[in-house]
Design a protein that fits this description.
Keywords: Glycoprotein, Repeat, Signal. InterPro entries: 6-blade_b-propeller_TolB-like, NHL_repeat. It holds the Pfam family NHL. The protein is mainly β. The protein folds into two domains: 38 residues; 287 residues, TolB, C-terminal domain (Neuraminidase, 6 Propeller), CATH 2.120.10. The chain is built from no helices and 26 strands. It has a four-stranded antiparallel β-sheet, with no helix packed on it. A four-stranded antiparallel β-sheet has the order 4-5-6-7, with no helix packed on it. The chain has a four-stranded antiparallel β-sheet with strand order 8-9-10-11, with no helix packed on it. The two termini are 21 Å apart. The relative contact order is 0.15. About 6% of the residues have low confidence.
Length: 342
């Protein structure tokens, strides 16, 4: 469990550490004159959610009207949400409190392979160190970086010739990317195009040393990599340096039983090791507690495909903010829903 009494809660030397009153999550507040307050990516990796936590079942739409088949999303320290707007070939940003108007922050110049264009982006993260976006440009088979500074009109290519689908970053600023076609996950340092194999790599398949159409990723502070192994209907965890993974959710074929996953996509792991998974195929969000690999719990959705406040139609991306509120991209409803922790 993350604590302010241990290494300042991971906030670094230039931030004050405190605990949120409701969730007990570590909160990092920048000190005057400093801006780098947490992990290099700005992702929320210190959310500590109590084991019996519940969320309001009716979501609030915090982004919509300008999206077409949204995929991965990323929630920054300040609750700014960036979204891979798959069908519109762009990245959209919604700032906290503004649920009316989003802002195009990358792409949006029709689909194409120019440096000013994207084609079917599937995932995105914020790199605080360089104040930039790292984007899985799925349709162009590349990973690109776009500065968040005002006036930016094009990106730069970081990794080429990769069937990228999901990406994430650890505290050391290594980027992890899933290759949907090869069935593997690689870790990259900035400036390299080959990377180090960290999951899969033995061809497409269902063995513990294999992946089948891996999609989204999560990496914890121990550099354990969690993969939504879409084609195998499971989430698999690869410890650092391992040659095969451990099934931590699903793996019992596609279905709606609590022992199964159907189209696992976005995932998140809190500081207790609890896993949260968005299921595209069965329109729900599941929670799997650490040590219980046999059965999960439905925490959101599961009410059939629909556009109601308590329904999803193809949920894909999933993330939390520091308060423990949960964000889900509801792809076929072309919206992002926020569910408040109770």
């Amino acid at each position: 469990m993350q604590s302010c009494t241990i290494t300042n809660g991971g906030c670094g030397p230039h931030a004050a550490c405190s605990h949120h009153a409701k969730t007990n999550a570590v909160q990092c507040t920048k000190k005057a004159g400093h801006t780098n307050t947490g992990s290099a990516s700005g992702d929320i990796r210190t959310v500590n959610i109590r084991a019996n936590a519940k969320w309001t079942q009716n979501g609030v739409t915090i982004a919509g009207g300008q999206l077409y088949d949204p995929c991965g999303l990323f929630v920054g320290d300040d609750q700014t949400v960036v979204i891979a707007d798959f069908g519109n070939h762009r990245i959209m940003q919604w700032k906290n409190g503004n649920t009316t108007n989003g802002e195009v922050v990358a792409g949006g110049k029709c689909e194409g392979n120019g440096l000013h264009q994207l084609r079917y982006p599937t995932d995105v993260l914020i790199d605080k160190e360089t104040d930039s976006l790292i984007i899985c440009d799925y349709g162009n088979g590349r990973v690109v970086r776009w500065s968040r500074r005002s006036g930016t009109t094009q990106g730069e290519i970081l990794i080429e010739n990769i069937n990228c689908y999901g990406l994430t970053m650890d505290e050391r600023r290594y980027v992890y990317v899933s290759d949907y076609g090869k069935g593997e996950v690689r870790r990259y340092q900035f400036g390299e195009n080959i990377g180090t194999l960290v999951a899969g790599g033995s061809g497409q398949g269902s063995g513990l040393n294999q992946l089948k159409s891996p999609a989204y990723l999560f990496v914890d502070r121990q550099q354990n990599v969690y993969v939504s192994d879409y084609g195998n209907y499971r989430v698999i965890k690869w410890k650092k340096g391992a040659t095969e993974g451990i099934v931590v959710a699903g793996g019992q074929g596609a279905g709606s039983a609590l022992t199964q996953l159907n189209g696992p996509c976005g995932l998140f792991v809190d500081t207790l090791g609890t896993l949260y998974v968005a299921e595209w195929g069965i329109h729900r969000v599941m929670r799997w507690t650490q040590g219980d690999k046999k059965q999960g719990t439905v925490i959101l959705g599961g009410n059939g495909a629909g556009a109601g406040a308590n329904q999803f139609n193809g949920p894909v991306g999933l993330s939390f903010d520091r308060h423990g509120d949960l964000y889900v991209t509801d792809s076929r409803n072309n919206r992002v829903q926020r569910f408040s922790i109770e």
